[in-house]
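Example 478, ligand 2-acetamido-2-deoxy-beta-D-glucopyranose.
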Amino acid sequence: MRLTDLWLNLKPRKTVWVALAAICLACTLLLLFYEYEGIPLAINRHSTHNQPTTPPPSILDPENSAATPPASNNDYQSNQYNPSNAVSGDRRCQAFSDPGNVVFVIKTGATEVYEKLPTQLLTTLGCVQDFLLFSDLDERIGPYRLRDTLAGFNETLKETLPDFELYRMQHEFRRTGQDMASLKGEKAWKLDKYKFLHLVEQAWLERPGRDWYFFIETDTYVVWTNLILWLQRVSPPTNPLYLGSVAYFMNDPFAHGGSGIVISGKLLEQFIGSEPGLAGRYDDAFEQNCCGDSVLANTIRKELDIQVQNMWPQINGEKPTTLSFGPMQWCQPVVTMHHLHPRERTAIFDFEQARPDLTTPLTFAELSQIPFPRTNPREIEEDWDNLSNVRIAFAGQAEITKDTCRDACLGLERCFQWRFNSDGECDVSTETFRLGGKKLPDGDGENAKRWFSGWNVELIERWRAENECKEVEWVNPH
Ligand SMILES: *[C@@H]1O[C@H](CO)[C@@H](O)[C@H](O)[C@H]1NC(C)=O
Ligand SMILES: CC(=O)N[C@H]1CO[C@H](CO)[C@@H](O)[C@@H]1O
């Protein structure tokens, strides 16, 4: 019998009411007592999760025994679990607390972690109770534990592949106390791709049996409200699902990693099974491929014959300044964005916190207020590329200036923005509006090439008013 049945079966008999009243009174008194005595009542929802069922793997590293304390019974020192990151003042978590059926997996690297992870922890992850941090070096930041995703990678390949030079250097840098941030760049990007399969395997093996596995990077932004609302609509997943924003390598589709990859537990159960092994069998597949996310897709296809399903634009690789707002991206909820600098991340976070109702989905339409605010909109910027993309040809005109370009745009029936450069080239956008960013002059002095951009703020405002979202358009996998 369920609780609700029990409740319904209760005949309103006097004795029952008296008994209930007595219980209520007793509970209230008990609460008051606990409050008074300062006994913590808050139950950490993950305190049960946080009891490792298997002993944590040893993180002892002979060359690093000073930096990494030996595993002990002290939870803080030894556990493979991060402390809950939920912040009580965060309005997003007041609207929706962590549903507990999603494993958040964040991929990073030792050269970027101090630059990018803190803001990720302070913003997107501010409502997440349970998450895993995967890097290319075993280390700790305060209470957070970062794992070396490549620890189990084929040793022969690790020693011989040129792309692993950074991996070897990071250990040397740590031994000699040098700043690993100075190693960031292309080498880190090349090493990163080798992590994808071990990442997925370890995430599943450490948190088997959850509904969803959500793989993001340190510069991915997640709109919490939208993620929760979306997953509520499709949970529990009964099928093996592999969802993301589709990109291609050699005509083969894959879910783009930076935009975030969502995989159902049902898929990983079949893909990984109950012990490590799958990832190691494909260690030699990465060198020839541009991208680790592509190898992941190929491997899922090969092993399970399952294709990625496209969730674009809900899962998105752009951010407020680079998004093309317009008919294609307007009434859908935006779940992820990519390439966010820490300050841009904070700006969206603040925007979210200031929304009147955080239980309603945040659409692209609403998000467009960040780059295109109603009050004080930008009309023109010098040394700016607005990413306009339709070239305007001026037949037989002597000199083309930025005013000619602006007037040409304003003279069109629908033109959202224009861009002019000092070579006399004029481009406009008639379908979408996009902010773009600073573009410094190319060259020195008089002869430097410069860019100017402007927006038809009146049209943007009118288009917005004419295209108010009456209903949120959730994206179906396609
Ligand atoms: C590691 O890779 C090498 C070269 O591809 C291969 O010969 C070897 O069997 C692999 N080792 C393991 C343990 O899989
Ligand atoms: C300066 C410049 O022209 N930048 C880019 C603006 O966007 C268009 C298309 O989106 C590109 O072709 C330009 O290179």
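Summary: The pocket of 2-acetamido-2-deoxy-beta-D-glucopyranose (ligand 2) is lined by residues 385, 387, 389, 439, 451 (CB under 6 Å).
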